[in-house]
Specification:
single chain, alpha/beta, seven-stranded mixed sheet, globular, binds pyridoxal-5'-phosphate
Length: about 375
């Protein structure tokens, strides 16, 4: 049997990893500023995370949600403390798409409505409604097409208000990334998020903050929406939540009431996933990683802005993007193969930095130095 070929892949076999470094099967070392697509939050193979998972594995890895699983409550407690959303309710699942799917479904149950507002350049995942709310027709199968999603321009407050004025009573939810990731690192303006909050309140719609990529401390605050001083009704999370152990979740404001059977999952919230997620939060707290991400992010952004051939440096904390001019179109490839540095990309010409929140200043400054070299050396 061979693999179903859905990904363009780099010819590199990573065999081990530590912190922000990974090594291939030839023992070559790479600096990882991509984190396997924003997943590595506290650093690869962090000893506390490994220990927590190992200890849990020896006791019990899985039992279904038909029994009490106290480690879920421990996780909810810790997440409430660190995110500042103490009175929210936690529902656990396995991935970002699933988190968004559950959030949208819950909003529809809550309001009894069908329409969703999503935005240009959004990415919310590849399952049915999540992909329908994603602004990329090329990944939408005919069966996922629906008239229930209304796309509006991102950061366009007038378009948002207009739509609410016209169709407000049909809108179940607005789903928005605080910083668009796949769309190319586009920061939602505070005034835009405040307007989403205001309109959702006025028309009884649910504000869903897709924090799968921009959440969990990456932006320098726990949720990037916190910069606007708003509370969303539902936050969706995955990626950094498990530092590579698959886990996703949604946190739900207290006015949204649960009912048995409303949401459900077999694997979501299993013992092992909760142990991994708790380890992540414990390390974030102990190592002060959110503040660290903000500081290292500031240094990286300022350094990038000082490189004249790069434009449009943007983002917050350790979620940073910049535009690469045509004459440097191979920059990402050169960084990887010649300088041994992983970075991310967004089409057509954006480099995305999504490192671990524990990236050291030393590694950040090494990256800037290598980036400058790459720009000087390979003008192709
Ligand atoms: C903002 C956002 N939402 C949802 C998802 C989907 O997450 P997953 O791939 O875990 O289903 C992604 C993945 O890149 C994402 O960036």
């Amino acid at each position: 049997m061979k693999l179903f070929d859905v990904y363009p892949i780099n010819d590199i076999n990573i065999t081990h990893a530590k912190g922000s470094k990974v090594w291939d099967d030839q023992q070559r070392q790479y600096l990882d500023l991509y984190g396997g697509h924003a997943v590595i939050s506290i650093g690869h193979t962090h000893p506390h995370w490994v220990h927590r998972i190992e200890e849990q594995l020896k006791k019990i890895a899985f039992y279904s949600n038909s029994i009490k699983i106290p480690i879920q409550e421990e996780l909810a407690q810790k997440l409430g403390e660190i995110s500042g959303k103490k009175d929210y309710q936690l529902f656990l699942c396995n991935s970002g798409a699933e988190a968004n799917e559950n959030a949208l479904k819950l909003a529809s149950f809550h309001t009894g409505r069908k329409k969703i507002i999503a935005f240009s350049k959004s990415f919310h995942g590849r399952t049915s409604l999540a992909v329908a709310a994603t602004d990329n027709p090329s990944i939408l199968a005919p069966v996922n097409q629906t008239d229930n999603v209304i796309f509006l321009p991102f950061n366009d407050t007038s378009a948002l208000e207009e739509t609410f004025k016209k169709n407000g009573n049909e809108i179940a939810a607005v789903i928005v990334e605080g910083i668009q990731g796949v769309g190319g690192i586009n920061v939602a303006e505070n005034s835009f998020l405040l307007s989403i909050r205001k309109n959702c309140d006025q028309y009884g719609a649910v504000y869903i903050a897709d924090s799968v990529q921009c959440g969990y401390g990456r932006s320098g605050k726990f949720f990037s929406h916190d910069y606007a001083g708003v509370n969303a009704d539902i936050y969706t999370m995955a990626k950094g939540m498990g530092n590579g152990f698959p886990i996703g979740g949604i946190i739900i404001a207290p006015h949204l009431k649960p009912k048995h059977g409303m949401l459900g999952t077999t694997f979501g919230g299993n013992h092992l996933a909760c142990a991994a997620a708790l380890a992540v939060l414990e390390v974030i707290e102990k190592e002060n990683l959110i503040q660290h991400a903000e500081q290292v992010g500031e240094y990286l952004s300022a350094s990038l802005k000082s490189i004249s051939s790069l434009t449009g440096v943007r983002g917050r904390g350790l979620m940073i993007g910049f535009d690469v001019p045509d004459h440097l179109k191979n920059l990402k490839k050169n960084l990887l193969f010649k300088h041994k540095i992983f970075t991310g990309e967004a089409k057509p010409n954006v480099i995305r930095l999504l490192p671990s929140l524990a990236l050291t200043m030393e590694d950040a400054s090494y990256f800037i130095q290598q980036l400058k070299l790459a720009i000087e050396q390979y003008q192709d």
